[in-house]
Write a structure and sequence with these properties.
Radius of gyration: 25 Å
Helix content: 55-70%
Structural class: alpha+beta
CATH superfamily of the largest domain: AhpD-like
Strand order of the largest sheet: 2-3-1-4
Number of strands: 4
CATH architecture of the largest domain: Up-down Bundle
Number of domains: 2
Largest sheet: 4 strands, antiparallel
CATH topology of the largest domain: AhpD-like
Length: 352
């Protein structure tokens, strides 16, 4: 009787441990690997143009098992999503990283050779088929809407991006979608393209768990507001818009009177674009003194420091800054502290 009891106990214990091991393996498979996390961070920082942290992540990516050619291919692909300047800056940074690692005696793995040329006769058809596989929907020729309006863009998209670039198997389609999603998740104003690629990513086998992980990485690498864009699309709870490092500021600006009309127009354009396009810009509210219209005051509210740092790097802010420099007599930035942050979310709601 005792022997049977012990045997039964051992059998149940073995079954219990087996289930725990299987569950642990399943949970591990559902989340991102260390090399996938590195690929996401590298792609995000390339898109935002943050070279110093990018250099750190390039080193980490190599240490986590990414090959030289996998990173090269990711940085090359990214020019299609964040432009040649940032892609080239990232490639030059990677070149420096490899030279420094070699000087320190580190031997990095080159990996699979990158395909240099694509000899397919009909590249448009090749790209169209690749896109059909990613979207799992028929792709008309030309693409409805933009493809009919601007056929050359449709051809570039199919023949170059989804044919020439995707012809290299150094990265899998799943890895390529992680690269693309990470870049688009880091850039404001591209939510529709991000939504499309999130669907494509799922079609390559990327799970909701992994996309939730990706959003967490974007929050730490870029900012919370960009991460919430991903969470919103995949139906995950949003992180609070404002953090403990929320920035509230009053800009006190005196304009040279002869430039007042020109300055006001530029300011209106910049503030409108910032609030409408950047999720982390909660308010930019310009005002002028009644008795002296050249005295401008701007209430600025940013979700956190990362949102502010992202804002000052945008093309529309840089245009505002450079084009109004000669118009400003004096500028004083006054940082403020909110006395009632619990009701902060109600600001301006009555106007709506």
């Amino acid at each position: 009787m005792i022997k049977k009891t012990v045997t039964l106990f051992l059998s149940l214990l073995f079954t219990f441990n087996s289930i725990n091991i299987m569950n642990a393996q399943e949970n591990t498979a559902q989340h991102l690997s260390s090399s996938q996390q590195s690929l996401i961070k590298i792609s995000a920082l390339t898109a935002t143009g943050d070279i110093a942290p990018l250099k750190i992540q390039l080193n980490t990516g190599l240490d986590e098992g990414l090959t030289i050619n996998e990173i090269k291919e990711a940085l090359t692909q990214l020019y299609a999503y964040c432009g040649f300047p940032r892609s080239l800056n990232a490639i030059n940074t990677f070149k420096t990283v490899l030279e420094e690692r070699k000087a320190h005696g580190k031997k990095d793995i080159a990996g699979k050779e990158i395909v240099v040329e694509n000899k397919v006769t009909d590249k448009y058809e090749q790209g169209r088929k690749v896109l059909e596989g990613l979207t799992k929907t028929p792709q008309l020729k030309p693409a409805p809407g933009f493809g009919e309006f601007a056929p050359r863009v449709d051809y570039f998209l199919k023949e170059h991006l989804f044919a020439d670039i995707f012809a290299s198997d150094v990265l899998s389609y799943q890895q390529r979608e992680l690269v693309t999603i990470s870049a688009l998740a880091s850039l404001p104003g591209v939510e529709s393209q991000l939504q499309s690629h999130l669907s494509m990513g799922k079609n390559t086998g990327i799970t909701d768990y992994q996309l939730a992980d990706l959003a967490d990485i974007i929050e730490k690498t870029v900012n919370r507001t960009q991460a919430n864009t991903v969470r919103k699309i995949i139906g995950k709870p949003l992180a609070p818009k404002t953090g403990s490092d929320m920035i509230i500021r009053i800009s006190e600006i005196e304009i040279i009177p002869e430039f007042l009309e020109q300055y006001t127009k530029i300011l209106e354009e910049e503030s409108s674009v910032s609030v409408n396009v950047e999720p982390g810009v909660l308010a930019i509210f310009p005002m002028s003194q009644k008795e002296n219209p050249a005295q401008i005051r701007i209430i600025e509210i940013y979700a956190d420091k990362d949102a502010y740092q992202s804002h000052v790097k945008t093309p529309h802010f840089q245009h505002y800054k450079t084009s109004t420099l000669k118009m400003i007599q004096s500028l004083k930035l006054v940082d403020m502290e909110g006395l009632d942050k619990e009701t902060m979310s109600q600001i301006f709601t009555k106007i709506k």
